[in-house]
Model the fold of this input.
Amino acid sequence: MRRFMRVDAGPASEIPEGEAKCATLGQRPVALFSIGGKVYCLDNRCTHVGGPLCEGTLDDFVVECPWHGSRFDVRSGQVVGPPARTPVRSYPAVIEGGRVWVDLP
Ligand code: FES
Done:
């Protein structure tokens, strides 16, 4: 059975709608995105050569890596634009009690 640890990622109000926030949960750098009242969480390391996705630009549900422009769907981590070819890891995130909670493995 897989076990997850639910981690407090801070107040939801700290992530402006349509924007990203950089965070470290446990030892793990992540990128949090707020879209349409929901929050999405990806590993902060682009699968191309490690660009910081939390500093990327967000267009609808797609984040563009600031280094070479790879694009990922923040809902799944799937690649939607090159040069990256490997999906970035995504983690389930919810807002409860005004705070963001992320399930980490
Ligand atoms: S490191 Fe992200 S596109 Fe190159």
Summary: Residues 35 and 77 are 15 Å apart (CA to CA). The pocket of FE2/S2 (inorganic) cluster is lined by residues 46, 48-51, 65, 67-70, 83-84 (CB under 6 Å). The chain has one domain: 5-104. The chain has a mean pLDDT of 96.
